[in-house]
Amino acid sequence: MACNLNTVFLPHRISACGREPVSSKTQGFCLPSSPADGGASLAWSALSHDSVLATSGSLHLSTTITRKSPTQTLIVTEERKSTTAGKFGRYGGKFVPETLMLCLSQLEAELKVVLHDEEFQAELATALKDYVGRETPLYLAQRITNHYKNSMGEGPEIYLKREDLNHCGAHKMNNAIAQAMLAKRIGRKSIVAATGAGQHGVATAAACAKLALECTIYMGRMDMERQSSNVTFMNLLGAEVRSVDGSFKDATSEAIRHWVNNLDSSYHLAGAPVGPHPCPAMVREFQSVIGKETRKQAMEKWGGKPDVLVACVGSGSNALGLFHEFVRDEDVRLIGVEAAGVGLESGKHSATLATGEVGVYQGAMSYLLQDEEGQIIGPHSVAVGLEYPGVSPELSFLKDIGRAEFYTVTDQEAIDAYRRVSQLEGIIPAMEASHAIAFLEKLCPTLPDGARVVVSCSGRGDKDAEMVLEHI
Ligand SMILES: Cc1ncc(COP(=O)(O)O)c(C=O)c1O
Protein backbone atom coordinates (compact mmCIF):
# COMPACT_ATOMS: atom_id res chain seq x y z
CA MET A 1 0.00 0.00 0.00
CA ALA A 2 1.62 3.23 -1.12
CA CYS A 3 0.93 6.37 0.77
CA ASN A 4 2.31 9.84 0.27
CA LEU A 5 0.16 11.77 2.67
CA ASN A 6 1.94 14.32 4.76
CA THR A 7 -0.13 13.46 7.77
CA VAL A 8 0.33 13.81 11.48
CA PHE A 9 -1.89 13.25 14.47
CA LEU A 10 -3.13 16.58 15.71
CA PRO A 11 -4.05 17.78 19.17
CA HIS A 12 -7.69 18.18 20.14
CA ARG A 13 -8.98 19.68 23.33
CA ILE A 14 -12.01 17.90 24.75
CA SER A 15 -14.67 20.14 26.27
CA ALA A 16 -15.81 19.38 29.78
CA CYS A 17 -19.25 18.23 28.68
CA GLY A 18 -18.69 17.45 25.02
CA ARG A 19 -18.23 14.25 23.12
CA GLU A 20 -16.31 15.82 20.26
CA PRO A 21 -13.04 17.67 20.07
CA VAL A 22 -13.85 21.40 20.17
CA SER A 23 -10.82 22.60 18.26
CA SER A 24 -8.64 21.09 15.60
CA LYS A 25 -6.04 23.42 14.19
CA THR A 26 -4.72 22.08 10.90
CA GLN A 27 -1.18 23.49 11.05
CA GLY A 28 -0.79 22.61 7.37
CA PHE A 29 -1.57 18.92 7.74
CA CYS A 30 -4.67 16.92 6.97
CA LEU A 31 -7.13 16.35 9.75
CA PRO A 32 -7.49 13.01 11.46
CA SER A 33 -10.80 11.24 11.07
CA SER A 34 -13.14 10.69 13.96
CA PRO A 35 -12.36 7.73 16.24
CA ALA A 36 -12.16 4.86 13.83
CA ASP A 37 -13.37 2.27 16.29
CA GLY A 38 -16.51 4.25 16.96
CA GLY A 39 -15.98 3.84 20.66
CA ALA A 40 -15.64 7.44 21.72
CA SER A 41 -19.16 8.03 22.91
CA LEU A 42 -19.17 4.72 24.75
CA ALA A 43 -15.96 5.78 26.40
CA TRP A 44 -17.40 9.15 27.29
CA SER A 45 -20.33 7.63 29.07
CA ALA A 46 -18.21 5.00 30.78
CA LEU A 47 -17.01 7.06 33.69
CA SER A 48 -20.46 8.31 34.54
CA HIS A 49 -21.40 4.75 35.50
CA ASP A 50 -20.14 2.77 38.45
CA SER A 51 -18.73 0.13 36.20
CA VAL A 52 -16.24 0.78 33.43
CA LEU A 53 -14.60 -1.52 30.98
CA ALA A 54 -10.92 -1.29 30.27
CA THR A 55 -8.71 -3.21 27.92
CA SER A 56 -6.38 -4.09 30.70
CA GLY A 57 -4.52 -7.32 31.14
CA SER A 58 -3.32 -9.02 28.02
CA LEU A 59 -5.07 -8.27 24.78
CA HIS A 60 -7.37 -11.16 25.58
CA LEU A 61 -8.45 -10.02 29.00
CA SER A 62 -11.04 -7.49 29.92
CA THR A 63 -11.09 -5.99 33.34
CA THR A 64 -14.27 -4.68 34.91
CA ILE A 65 -13.56 -2.20 37.65
CA THR A 66 -16.42 -1.34 39.97
CA ARG A 67 -16.15 1.66 42.23
CA LYS A 68 -17.13 0.69 45.78
CA SER A 69 -16.10 3.99 47.31
CA PRO A 70 -13.78 6.78 46.17
CA THR A 71 -10.80 4.90 47.55
CA GLN A 72 -11.84 1.31 47.01
CA THR A 73 -12.19 -0.57 43.76
CA LEU A 74 -13.31 -4.09 43.01
CA ILE A 75 -11.59 -5.53 40.00
CA VAL A 76 -12.92 -8.57 38.18
CA THR A 77 -11.17 -10.06 35.19
CA GLU A 78 -12.75 -12.24 32.59
CA GLU A 79 -11.49 -13.99 29.48
CA ARG A 80 -12.56 -12.51 26.18
CA LYS A 81 -12.13 -14.10 22.81
CA SER A 82 -12.68 -11.09 20.61
CA THR A 83 -10.30 -8.18 20.09
CA THR A 84 -10.72 -5.04 22.13
CA ALA A 85 -11.06 -1.54 20.79
CA GLY A 86 -7.99 -0.30 22.60
CA LYS A 87 -9.95 1.65 25.19
CA PHE A 88 -9.07 2.25 28.81
CA GLY A 89 -12.35 3.68 30.01
CA ARG A 90 -12.69 6.82 27.89
CA TYR A 91 -8.99 6.91 27.02
CA GLY A 92 -6.95 5.49 24.16
CA GLY A 93 -8.63 4.64 20.89
CA LYS A 94 -7.47 5.22 17.33
CA PHE A 95 -7.81 8.84 16.26
CA VAL A 96 -6.06 8.39 12.93
CA PRO A 97 -6.60 9.06 9.25
CA GLU A 98 -8.18 6.20 7.32
CA THR A 99 -4.88 5.64 5.51
CA LEU A 100 -3.31 4.33 8.70
CA MET A 101 -6.16 2.05 9.71
CA LEU A 102 -5.04 -0.91 7.60
CA CYS A 103 -1.50 -0.75 8.97
CA LEU A 104 -2.68 -0.54 12.56
CA SER A 105 -5.15 -3.38 12.05
CA GLN A 106 -2.41 -5.56 10.56
CA LEU A 107 -0.17 -4.72 13.48
CA GLU A 108 -2.92 -5.56 15.97
CA ALA A 109 -3.59 -8.88 14.26
CA GLU A 110 0.10 -9.80 14.17
CA LEU A 111 0.56 -8.75 17.77
CA LYS A 112 -2.24 -11.05 18.86
CA VAL A 113 -0.54 -13.91 17.04
CA VAL A 114 2.93 -13.34 18.49
CA LEU A 115 1.65 -12.97 22.04
CA HIS A 116 0.51 -16.58 21.81
CA ASP A 117 3.06 -17.92 19.36
CA GLU A 118 5.35 -20.34 21.20
CA GLU A 119 8.23 -19.93 18.77
CA PHE A 120 8.16 -16.12 18.96
CA GLN A 121 7.81 -16.20 22.74
CA ALA A 122 10.73 -18.62 23.06
CA GLU A 123 12.91 -16.41 20.82
CA LEU A 124 11.91 -13.34 22.82
CA ALA A 125 12.65 -15.09 26.11
CA THR A 126 16.11 -16.03 24.81
CA ALA A 127 16.77 -12.47 23.62
CA LEU A 128 15.63 -11.02 26.95
CA LYS A 129 17.91 -13.40 28.84
CA ASP A 130 21.03 -13.56 26.67
CA TYR A 131 20.97 -10.18 24.90
CA VAL A 132 19.17 -7.82 27.29
CA GLY A 133 20.55 -9.54 30.39
CA ARG A 134 17.31 -10.26 32.21
CA GLU A 135 16.24 -10.93 34.84
CA THR A 136 17.27 -7.66 36.42
CA PRO A 137 17.96 -7.77 40.17
CA LEU A 138 15.50 -6.68 42.84
CA TYR A 139 18.12 -5.00 44.98
CA LEU A 140 17.71 -4.22 48.68
CA ALA A 141 19.12 -0.68 48.93
CA GLN A 142 20.30 -1.02 52.52
CA ARG A 143 21.87 2.42 52.93
CA ILE A 144 18.85 4.18 51.44
CA THR A 145 16.70 2.08 53.75
CA ASN A 146 18.84 3.21 56.71
CA HIS A 147 18.63 6.83 55.51
CA TYR A 148 14.85 6.76 55.94
CA LYS A 149 14.76 5.12 59.39
CA ASN A 150 13.27 7.30 62.13
CA SER A 151 14.79 7.91 65.55
CA MET A 152 13.33 4.59 66.75
CA GLY A 153 15.19 2.77 63.95
CA GLU A 154 11.92 2.10 62.12
CA GLY A 155 11.10 2.63 58.48
CA PRO A 156 10.27 0.94 55.21
CA GLU A 157 12.58 -1.37 53.28
CA ILE A 158 13.60 0.11 49.93
CA TYR A 159 14.26 -2.11 46.93
CA LEU A 160 15.41 -0.94 43.51
CA LYS A 161 14.26 -2.83 40.43
CA ARG A 162 17.49 -2.55 38.46
CA GLU A 163 16.34 -1.79 34.91
CA ASP A 164 19.53 0.28 34.63
CA LEU A 165 21.39 -3.03 34.31
CA ASN A 166 19.65 -3.94 31.07
CA HIS A 167 21.75 -3.92 27.91
CA CYS A 168 22.01 -0.26 26.79
CA GLY A 169 21.14 0.91 30.28
CA ALA A 170 17.37 1.27 30.51
CA HIS A 171 14.00 -0.48 30.48
CA LYS A 172 13.50 0.77 26.90
CA MET A 173 15.35 -2.30 25.58
CA ASN A 174 12.60 -4.71 26.76
CA ASN A 175 10.17 -3.19 24.28
CA ALA A 176 12.65 -2.27 21.54
CA ILE A 177 13.93 -5.80 21.02
CA ALA A 178 10.43 -7.29 21.07
CA GLN A 179 9.03 -4.81 18.55
CA ALA A 180 12.07 -5.07 16.29
CA MET A 181 11.52 -8.85 16.21
CA LEU A 182 7.85 -8.26 15.41
CA ALA A 183 8.75 -5.80 12.61
CA LYS A 184 11.13 -8.31 11.06
CA ARG A 185 8.50 -11.01 11.25
CA ILE A 186 6.03 -8.89 9.27
CA GLY A 187 8.66 -8.22 6.62
CA ARG A 188 9.66 -4.66 7.39
CA LYS A 189 13.20 -3.72 6.36
CA SER A 190 13.63 -0.39 8.11
CA ILE A 191 12.73 0.99 11.50
CA VAL A 192 11.92 4.57 12.37
CA ALA A 193 11.68 5.85 15.93
CA ALA A 194 11.73 9.04 17.98
CA THR A 195 13.68 9.50 21.15
CA GLY A 196 13.86 12.11 23.89
CA ALA A 197 16.55 11.15 26.39
CA GLY A 198 18.11 8.91 23.76
CA GLN A 199 17.59 5.67 25.70
CA HIS A 200 14.84 4.45 23.39
CA GLY A 201 16.95 5.54 20.41
CA VAL A 202 19.98 3.62 21.62
CA ALA A 203 17.90 0.52 22.42
CA THR A 204 16.21 0.65 19.02
CA ALA A 205 19.53 1.17 17.19
CA ALA A 206 21.05 -1.80 19.02
CA ALA A 207 18.06 -4.06 18.32
CA CYS A 208 18.21 -3.06 14.64
CA ALA A 209 21.92 -3.85 14.46
CA LYS A 210 21.29 -7.27 15.96
CA LEU A 211 18.44 -8.02 13.55
CA ALA A 212 20.02 -6.42 10.46
CA LEU A 213 17.34 -3.74 10.09
CA GLU A 214 17.93 -0.20 8.85
CA CYS A 215 17.36 2.36 11.57
CA THR A 216 16.45 6.05 11.49
CA ILE A 217 16.05 7.94 14.76
CA TYR A 218 14.48 11.40 15.08
CA MET A 219 15.54 13.56 18.01
CA GLY A 220 14.97 17.18 19.04
CA ARG A 221 17.95 19.48 18.39
CA MET A 222 18.27 20.57 22.02
CA ASP A 223 17.85 17.00 23.27
CA MET A 224 20.74 15.95 21.03
CA GLU A 225 22.92 18.48 22.82
CA ARG A 226 21.65 17.57 26.28
CA GLN A 227 22.08 13.83 25.75
CA SER A 228 25.02 13.89 23.34
CA SER A 229 26.58 10.63 24.58
CA ASN A 230 23.47 8.74 23.46
CA VAL A 231 23.67 10.37 20.01
CA THR A 232 27.23 9.06 19.72
CA PHE A 233 26.09 5.57 20.69
CA MET A 234 23.23 5.59 18.17
CA ASN A 235 25.66 6.57 15.41
CA LEU A 236 28.12 3.89 16.45
CA LEU A 237 25.33 1.32 16.39
CA GLY A 238 24.71 2.17 12.74
CA ALA A 239 21.57 4.30 13.06
CA GLU A 240 21.01 7.53 11.18
CA VAL A 241 20.12 10.23 13.69
CA ARG A 242 18.06 13.09 12.25
CA SER A 243 17.69 16.28 14.22
CA VAL A 244 14.34 18.01 14.48
CA ASP A 245 13.53 21.58 15.47
CA GLY A 246 11.88 21.21 18.85
CA SER A 247 11.76 18.42 21.40
CA PHE A 248 10.57 14.82 21.76
CA LYS A 249 6.99 15.61 20.76
CA ASP A 250 8.21 17.17 17.52
CA ALA A 251 10.59 14.27 16.90
CA THR A 252 7.66 11.89 17.37
CA SER A 253 5.55 13.76 14.82
CA GLU A 254 8.49 13.67 12.38
CA ALA A 255 9.02 9.93 12.91
CA ILE A 256 5.31 9.31 12.29
CA ARG A 257 5.48 11.40 9.09
CA HIS A 258 8.45 9.34 7.92
CA TRP A 259 6.54 6.15 8.65
CA VAL A 260 3.37 7.34 6.91
CA ASN A 261 5.38 8.12 3.79
CA ASN A 262 6.94 4.64 3.77
CA LEU A 263 4.19 2.38 5.07
CA ASP A 264 5.19 -0.52 2.81
CA SER A 265 8.74 -0.89 4.01
CA SER A 266 9.10 0.82 7.36
CA TYR A 267 7.91 0.19 10.90
CA HIS A 268 7.39 2.89 13.52
CA LEU A 269 8.87 1.49 16.72
CA ALA A 270 7.03 3.27 19.53
CA GLY A 271 8.96 3.50 22.77
CA ALA A 272 6.06 4.85 24.77
CA PRO A 273 2.62 3.42 25.64
CA VAL A 274 0.92 6.27 23.79
CA GLY A 275 -0.42 6.76 20.26
CA PRO A 276 -3.23 4.87 18.55
CA HIS A 277 -4.26 1.32 19.47
CA PRO A 278 -2.53 -1.15 19.57
CA CYS A 279 0.60 0.87 20.52
CA PRO A 280 -0.27 1.56 24.19
CA ALA A 281 -1.27 -2.05 24.87
CA MET A 282 1.70 -3.41 22.92
CA VAL A 283 4.35 -1.35 24.71
CA ARG A 284 2.73 -2.11 28.08
CA GLU A 285 2.68 -5.81 27.23
CA PHE A 286 6.36 -5.90 26.24
CA GLN A 287 7.33 -3.96 29.38
CA SER A 288 5.20 -6.06 31.74
CA VAL A 289 8.17 -8.40 32.25
CA ILE A 290 9.34 -5.86 34.88
CA GLY A 291 6.36 -6.45 37.16
CA LYS A 292 6.21 -10.19 36.50
CA GLU A 293 9.82 -10.57 37.61
CA THR A 294 9.17 -8.31 40.60
CA ARG A 295 6.33 -10.53 41.82
CA LYS A 296 8.48 -13.65 41.52
CA GLN A 297 11.51 -12.04 43.17
CA ALA A 298 9.44 -10.61 46.03
CA MET A 299 8.02 -14.07 46.66
CA GLU A 300 11.52 -15.54 46.71
CA LYS A 301 12.96 -12.81 48.94
CA TRP A 302 10.26 -12.32 51.57
CA GLY A 303 7.47 -14.68 50.60
CA GLY A 304 4.94 -11.98 49.75
CA LYS A 305 4.13 -9.01 47.57
CA PRO A 306 5.57 -5.51 47.67
CA ASP A 307 3.43 -3.02 49.61
CA VAL A 308 4.20 -0.04 47.38
CA LEU A 309 5.47 0.31 43.81
CA VAL A 310 6.97 3.62 42.71
CA ALA A 311 7.96 4.65 39.17
CA CYS A 312 8.58 7.87 37.30
CA VAL A 313 6.08 8.81 34.60
CA GLY A 314 7.13 10.38 31.33
CA SER A 315 4.82 8.65 28.93
CA GLY A 316 4.35 5.71 31.28
CA SER A 317 6.23 2.67 29.96
CA ASN A 318 8.35 1.84 32.99
CA ALA A 319 5.49 2.65 35.35
CA LEU A 320 3.05 0.39 33.52
CA GLY A 321 5.75 -2.25 33.09
CA LEU A 322 6.04 -2.42 36.88
CA PHE A 323 2.40 -1.77 37.81
CA HIS A 324 0.55 -3.91 35.30
CA GLU A 325 1.20 -7.23 37.02
CA PHE A 326 -0.21 -5.79 40.28
CA VAL A 327 -3.23 -3.80 39.07
CA ARG A 328 -5.58 -6.45 40.45
CA ASP A 329 -3.76 -6.67 43.80
CA GLU A 330 -5.65 -4.01 45.69
CA ASP A 331 -3.28 -4.27 48.65
CA VAL A 332 -0.36 -3.03 46.52
CA ARG A 333 -0.17 0.77 46.17
CA LEU A 334 0.82 2.03 42.73
CA ILE A 335 2.55 5.42 42.75
CA GLY A 336 3.57 7.37 39.65
CA VAL A 337 5.88 10.37 39.95
CA GLU A 338 5.79 13.15 37.38
CA ALA A 339 8.22 15.98 36.79
CA ALA A 340 7.26 19.26 38.48
CA GLY A 341 10.21 20.93 36.72
CA VAL A 342 10.90 24.33 38.27
CA GLY A 343 7.51 24.21 40.04
CA LEU A 344 3.93 23.49 39.02
CA GLU A 345 2.96 27.14 39.42
CA SER A 346 5.75 28.21 37.03
CA GLY A 347 4.13 26.37 34.13
CA LYS A 348 7.56 24.88 33.36
CA HIS A 349 6.93 21.23 34.15
CA SER A 350 5.85 17.89 32.65
CA ALA A 351 3.14 17.00 35.16
CA THR A 352 0.49 15.88 32.69
CA LEU A 353 -1.59 13.78 35.07
CA ALA A 354 -1.32 16.31 37.89
CA THR A 355 -2.29 19.38 35.88
CA GLY A 356 -3.38 18.37 32.37
CA GLU A 357 -6.80 18.15 30.78
CA VAL A 358 -8.27 15.47 28.58
CA GLY A 359 -7.63 15.74 24.86
CA VAL A 360 -6.54 13.85 21.78
CA TYR A 361 -2.92 13.91 20.70
CA GLN A 362 -0.85 11.78 18.36
CA GLY A 363 -3.70 9.36 17.80
CA ALA A 364 -5.18 8.70 21.24
CA MET A 365 -7.15 10.30 24.05
CA SER A 366 -5.40 10.92 27.36
CA TYR A 367 -4.56 13.70 29.77
CA LEU A 368 -2.55 16.40 27.98
CA LEU A 369 -0.67 19.58 28.73
CA GLN A 370 -2.65 22.06 26.63
CA ASP A 371 -3.80 25.65 26.68
CA GLU A 372 -7.30 27.12 26.44
CA GLU A 373 -7.18 26.80 22.65
CA GLY A 374 -6.28 23.13 22.81
CA GLN A 375 -2.72 23.80 21.72
CA ILE A 376 0.02 21.71 23.27
CA ILE A 377 2.08 23.38 26.01
CA GLY A 378 5.77 22.51 25.72
CA PRO A 379 6.78 20.37 28.70
CA HIS A 380 9.89 20.96 30.78
CA SER A 381 12.00 18.73 33.00
CA VAL A 382 15.64 18.37 33.92
CA ALA A 383 15.05 14.76 32.83
CA VAL A 384 14.68 14.85 29.05
CA GLY A 385 12.87 11.50 29.05
CA LEU A 386 10.04 12.94 31.13
CA GLU A 387 9.39 15.81 28.72
CA TYR A 388 6.23 14.68 26.95
CA PRO A 389 2.96 16.65 26.91
CA GLY A 390 0.76 13.54 26.79
CA VAL A 391 0.70 10.38 28.86
CA SER A 392 -0.39 6.77 28.58
CA PRO A 393 -4.17 6.33 28.20
CA GLU A 394 -3.98 3.43 30.62
CA LEU A 395 -2.39 5.57 33.34
CA SER A 396 -5.01 8.26 32.65
CA PHE A 397 -7.64 5.65 33.35
CA LEU A 398 -5.92 4.31 36.48
CA LYS A 399 -5.80 7.88 37.78
CA ASP A 400 -9.51 8.47 37.19
CA ILE A 401 -10.61 5.30 38.95
CA GLY A 402 -8.25 5.98 41.83
CA ARG A 403 -6.27 2.76 41.37
CA ALA A 404 -2.95 4.56 40.94
CA GLU A 405 -1.74 7.66 42.77
CA PHE A 406 0.29 10.39 41.11
CA TYR A 407 2.62 12.93 42.68
CA THR A 408 5.28 15.33 41.46
CA VAL A 409 8.94 16.04 42.17
CA THR A 410 10.88 19.16 41.12
CA ASP A 411 14.10 19.31 39.10
CA GLN A 412 16.06 20.17 42.24
CA GLU A 413 14.56 17.30 44.27
CA ALA A 414 15.47 14.88 41.46
CA ILE A 415 19.03 16.20 41.25
CA ASP A 416 19.38 15.77 45.03
CA ALA A 417 18.14 12.18 44.75
CA TYR A 418 20.56 11.48 41.88
CA ARG A 419 23.46 12.47 44.11
CA ARG A 420 22.06 10.77 47.21
CA VAL A 421 21.69 7.37 45.53
CA SER A 422 25.07 7.69 43.85
CA GLN A 423 26.76 8.35 47.18
CA LEU A 424 24.74 5.96 49.36
CA GLU A 425 24.54 2.97 47.05
CA GLY A 426 27.22 3.44 44.37
CA ILE A 427 24.45 3.38 41.77
CA ILE A 428 24.05 6.32 39.38
CA PRO A 429 20.38 6.42 38.39
CA ALA A 430 19.02 8.12 35.26
CA MET A 431 17.60 11.57 35.98
CA GLU A 432 14.18 10.15 35.04
CA ALA A 433 14.48 7.39 37.65
CA SER A 434 15.78 9.95 40.14
CA HIS A 435 12.29 11.46 40.16
CA ALA A 436 10.83 8.19 41.45
CA ILE A 437 13.62 7.84 44.00
CA ALA A 438 13.23 11.49 45.13
CA PHE A 439 9.62 10.83 46.07
CA LEU A 440 10.88 8.53 48.86
CA GLU A 441 11.62 11.71 50.84
CA LYS A 442 7.88 12.40 51.09
CA LEU A 443 6.66 8.80 51.06
CA CYS A 444 8.89 7.08 53.60
CA PRO A 445 7.89 9.09 56.71
CA THR A 446 4.25 8.11 56.04
CA LEU A 447 4.84 4.33 55.79
CA PRO A 448 4.70 1.74 58.57
CA ASP A 449 7.85 0.03 59.79
CA GLY A 450 8.94 -2.78 57.49
CA ALA A 451 6.72 -1.79 54.53
CA ARG A 452 8.37 -3.02 51.35
CA VAL A 453 8.76 -0.43 48.64
CA VAL A 454 9.95 -1.29 45.13
CA VAL A 455 11.21 1.67 43.11
CA SER A 456 11.79 1.36 39.39
CA CYS A 457 15.39 2.34 38.68
CA SER A 458 14.43 2.68 35.03
CA GLY A 459 17.85 3.55 33.68
CA ARG A 460 21.42 4.45 34.41
CA GLY A 461 22.51 8.04 34.75
CA ASP A 462 25.87 8.45 33.04
CA LYS A 463 24.08 10.48 30.33
CA ASP A 464 23.10 13.04 33.01
CA ALA A 465 26.38 13.29 34.93
CA GLU A 466 27.72 16.42 33.23
CA MET A 467 24.48 18.30 33.75
CA VAL A 468 24.33 17.34 37.42
CA LEU A 469 27.94 18.45 37.95
CA GLU A 470 27.05 21.83 36.40
CA HIS A 471 24.24 22.20 38.95
CA ILE A 472 26.55 21.68 41.92
C1 LIG B 1 15.70 5.87 31.89
C2 LIG B 1 14.35 6.39 31.55
N1 LIG B 1 13.38 6.28 32.49
C3 LIG B 1 12.14 6.73 32.26
C4 LIG B 1 11.81 7.34 31.05
C5 LIG B 1 10.43 7.87 30.88
O1 LIG B 1 9.70 7.13 29.95
P1 LIG B 1 8.51 6.19 30.42
O2 LIG B 1 7.59 7.01 31.26
O3 LIG B 1 7.88 5.77 29.14
O4 LIG B 1 9.07 5.05 31.18
C6 LIG B 1 12.79 7.47 30.04
C7 LIG B 1 12.48 8.08 28.75
O5 LIG B 1 13.30 8.25 27.90
C8 LIG B 1 14.10 6.98 30.32
O6 LIG B 1 15.08 7.08 29.41
From TrEMBL:
Pathway(s) where this gene product acts: Amino-acid biosynthesis; L-tryptophan biosynthesis; L-tryptophan from chorismate: step 5/5
Cofactor(s), by name: pyridoxal 5'-phosphate
Residue span(s) of domain Tryptophan synthase beta chain-like PALP: 134-459
Catalysed reaction equations from the record: (1S,2R)-1-C-(indol-3-yl)glycerol 3-phosphate + L-serine = D-glyceraldehyde 3-phosphate + L-tryptophan + H2O
Pfam family, one: PALP
EC number(s) from the headed UniProt entry: 4.2.1.20
Matches recorded under InterPro entries: Trp_synth_b_CS, Trp_synth_beta, Trp_synth_beta/beta-like, TrpB-like_PALP, TrpB-like_PALP_sf
GO cellular component, one term: cytoplasm
Keywords, ordered alphabetically: Amino-acid biosynthesis, Aromatic amino acid biosynthesis, Lyase, Pyridoxal phosphate, Tryptophan biosynthesis
GO molecular function, one term: tryptophan synthase activity
NCBIfam families: trpB
Name this polypeptide is given: Tryptophan synthase
The organism of origin for this protein: Escallonia herrerae
